[in-house]
Amino acid sequence: MSRFTQNLHDPEGERLQKVLAHAGVGSRRACEELIEEGRVSVDGHIVTQLGIRVDPSRVAIHVDGNRIQVDESKLTVALYKPPGVVSTMQDDQGRKTLQDFVQDRAERLFHVGRLDVDTEGLILLSNDGELTHRLTHPSFEVPKTYIARVEGTVTRGLGKVLEKGITLEDGPVKVDEFVLRESARKNSIIEVTLHSGRNRIVRRIMDEVGHPVMELVRTCFGNITIGRLKPGQTRVIGGSELSALMNLVDL
Fold first, then answer.
1. Can you give the chain as a three-state secondary structure string?
2. Which residues are known to be catalytic?
3. Each residue of 136-166: pLDDT tens digit?
4. Does domain 3-67 have CATH number 3.30.1250.10?
5. Could you tell me which of 248, 162, 247 has the C-alpha nearest to residue 210?
6. Nearest to 9 by CA among 23, 19, 29
7. Checking CA distances to 230, which of 5, 30, 142, 171 falls within 20 to 30 Å?
8. How far apart are alpha carbons 175 and 187 in whole angstroms?
9. Domain spanning 143-221: which superfamily?
10. What average pLDDT does range 100-122 have in this prediction?
11. Beta bridge partners of 146
C-alpha cells in the first residue's frame, strides 16, 4: 500500500469494496473492478488499491464523480404531505404534523423546507444535517415544480411574463419554467418550476397576476419526483437518486 493510500486507510474500518456493495453500488466483485479502474475516490482522492479500509461515517466516497451515501445512519425520505398538515415535526396546537407519517422510524428526522398548510405534495425529511442545509440554502437554487389549479382563464402569454419576472412586496421573482396544461373559462391548470424558497411564493405570484390558486401540489424537489406516492405515503431516497440529489448541492 502506497504512503498516499495509507493516509486514507483506517485499520479499524471496512474494506472499501464492501462499503460500496452495502450502499447498493453493485456486487463486491463489480465494486472491486470500479476501484481498480480508478473510478472511486475517497475524500477527493482516487483510490485504485483494494486493501484500503474506511469508516463510512467519516469519509466522502464518490463513484464516477457521484457521491455515494455510505453512512447507514443517514436517512432521507420523500413524503406526500396531505393538505391540512403543518410542515413541522410537532405542533403545540395539536394539529397533524409530518411526524405523524414517520413515527414508526427510529431515526429523528427533520423537514427539508416547508409547504404551507393548504399545499399538498412532495416534501423531504432527513437526518443528514449538511444535505438539509444545502437543499434549503438559496445559493444552491434547488428547483421545485408545482401543479396548480387557478382561477380564471390563463393565456400562454402569462408564461413569458412570469419567466421574465414580476415584483412582489419583498422583491422581484421569476419562474424558471411555465407550462399551461389546461385553460377554461372558470379555472386553469398550470405547471411552474422555480428555485425561490420564499414563503407561499407560488400563491403570491399567482395572486399578483390575477389568478389566485385554488389547489396546489408540489410534484418535484430537485431531481426527486412524487412518482406514485399517494397522500400520507413515504419512500426512502437512496442509490443513484440520492447521489444525484447530493450532487445537485455539490456534496
1. CCHHHHHHCCCCCEEHHHHHHHCCCCCHHHHHHHHHCCCEEECCEEECCCCCEECCCCCCEEECCEEECCCCCCCEEEEEECCCCECCCCCCCCCCEHHHHCCCCCCCCEEECCCCCCCEEEEEEECCHHHHHHHHCHHHCCCEEEEEEEECCCCCHHHHHHHHCEEECCEEECCCEEEEEEECCCEEEEEEEECCCCCCHHHHHHHHCCCCEEEEEEEEECCEECCCCCCCCEEECCHHHHHHHHHHCCC
2. 116
3. 999 999 999 999 999 999 998 999 999 999 9
4. no
5. 162
6. 19
7. 142
8. 20
9. Pseudouridine synthase (3.30.2350.10)
10. 95
11. 192, 218
Q: What are phi and psi of 18, to 5 degrees?
A: -70, -40
* Chain length of the chain: 251
- What residue ranges do the domains of the chain occupy? 3-67, 76-139+224-248, 143-221
Confidence band of 6 (pLDDT split at 50, 70, 90): low
Report the predicted TM-score, pTM, of the whole model to 2 decimal places.
0.87
Residue 3 has pLDDT above 60, yes or no: no
**pLDDT at position 22, please?**
86
Q: Which three cell numbers stand for residue 8?
A: 486514507
Residue 66 φ/ψ, nearest 5 degrees: -100, 130
Pick the CATH number of 76-139+224-248 from 2.40.10.10, 3.30.70.580, 3.40.630.40, 3.40.190.10: 3.30.70.580
Ranking 8-22, 72-86, 134-148 by mean pLDDT, the lowest is 8-22
110 φ, ψ to 5°? -125, 145
